Amino acid sequence: MRKLRVFLANVGVWRKYGDFFVVPPLGILSLAAYLRSKRDVEVQLANQRFEKCSNEELVQRIRDFSADVVGLGSLTPTAWTFAPIAQLIKEWRPETLIVLGGPHVSAVGAEALRPVNADVAIPGEGEWAFEHVLREHFDGGNLDRVPGIAWRNGDGAVVQNPGATARVNDLDSLPFPAYDLLDLPSYWRTRGPLIPLKKRFIDLFTSRGCIYQCAYCHSAFGKVFRACSAERIADEIAYFQRRYDINEVHFSDDSFNLDEQRIFELSDLLIRRNIRVRICFPNGVRSDLLTEQTIDALVAAGWCQANFALDTGSPRLQRMFGRNLDIPRFLKAVEYSTSKGVLAAGCNMLGFPTETAEEMAETARVASESALHFAAFLRVTPFPGTPLYTYLEKEQPEKLAQLRYEEADIHSFRSSLPNFSAVPDDQLRGCFRRAALRFYARPKRIIRILRDVPAPVRQTLGFAHMVARRALFGNR
């Protein structure tokens, strides 16, 4: 009997900033592994933007695979591609089950399904719900039995099931991500979001959920923190090291260092088992939780790079938008980490609602006077499902209505994003320029970059030039 064929894709067409922020698609890698552990299925994956394929080329791959089920995931800026891709699939074979998921669906729920010729939308964590959708659809059940999903009934109406989609509480019970379905070495040849080193890496989630209340952040995994054990993490790294000869691990957790004891246990295990890898945190760490003891343990285990999210240097905005970062502790953590050899990049945002030019200058000052090696200054972007979006629906509805995610580039002040701050557009552009100049026009910082980045000087300078150019001139 022919196996059920499931095609999972991260969608979003390739854009002019290329593969800079394209990483292995952990969501569908985890989903594929889970489905294979529960059902006799054949799975194929695609990462559309990384593979630079058009919608038509992606659908041709789906047709060549003769997929019975297609799962499409996306961030909000690329979710507009759901509709044309789903339409092409239905024109080819109307009975194909199309399931939408990922961060955008987690943010907007059933609304993601209404404009798309698809069958099911799964918000939140997809493992349990996706497998139960397959069970109900193909084994003679009914989709109204799967809590939290939205689905299209026989009349074409969208039905929202009560309850919430099930979360995985025991992360140790999940199988390892299905990296065997991915051309992993092709990702090693890209720059990614970190310093371009010669690396053989994998990305891992070791926890889900974040207890913090940042108004501009997603909550796809909810606010309940759940984590893999240190033993599970060490076993996972060791497995992929044997299989792919990896020498670097990127932890993409929202709150990796929330449990300090877990860090101590993991460091001890990696050292005792002689599992030698470089450890990076491209998604950042909660910097004001880092103690010298935690930093020492991470460095001993191989920590070499991290993003440190300041977001804003304004105490008022920290409080207003729920970040509540202890800025002095942030600065102390960055300084101590870099003194131990960690390469530090900083994430900062300009253009918060009510933000003044003085507050933007304060963010630039805090970042520039810190021990960070690199920094990015990004446009504040309200996403559906966040408190920031709700705030702007009430306070600045006219500007919010102008927001076109498909045209936005948060990595450039020349973005077409509306200006939600308290300063005029020209002044906001000037704040971006001055922030980048203030940060990078410091001889001591340039010397530290050349001293600390373990890469050829030409490559190092090229990376620094790219970051500064994006901040100053956009993506021209």
- CATH fold descriptor of the largest domain: pyruvate-formate lyase- activating enzyme
Q: What is the overall silhouette?
A: globular
Highest-level CATH class of the largest domain? Alpha Beta
**SS content category:** alpha/beta
Mean pLDDT over the full residue set:
91
Radius of gyration: 22 Å
Share of residues in helices: 25-40%
- Termini separation: 54 Å
| CATH level-4 homologous superfamily of the largest domain | tm_1862 like domain
Task: Describe this entry's structure for a reader.
The protein is an alpha/beta fold and 476 residues long. It has helices at 26-38, 48-51, 55-65, 82-92, 103-108, 127-138, 184-188, 230-244, 260-272, 292-301, 315-320, 327-339, 357-368, 387-395, 397-401, 425-440, 443-452, 457-473, and strands at 4-10, 41-47, 69-73, 97-101, 120-121, 150-152, 158-160, 201-204, 207-208, 226-227, 248-251, 278-285, 303-311, 343-350, 374-379. Helices cover 39% and strands 16% of the residues. The protein has a seven-stranded mixed β-sheet with strand order 2-1-3-4-5-6-7, with helices on both faces. It is globular.
Q: What labels would you give this structure?
A:
single chain; alpha/beta; Rossmann fold; pyruvate-formate lyase- activating enzyme; 18 helices; 15 strands
In short:
This protein is 39% helix and 16% strand. The chain is built from 18 helices and 15 strands. The protein has a 7-stranded mixed sheet, with helices on both faces.
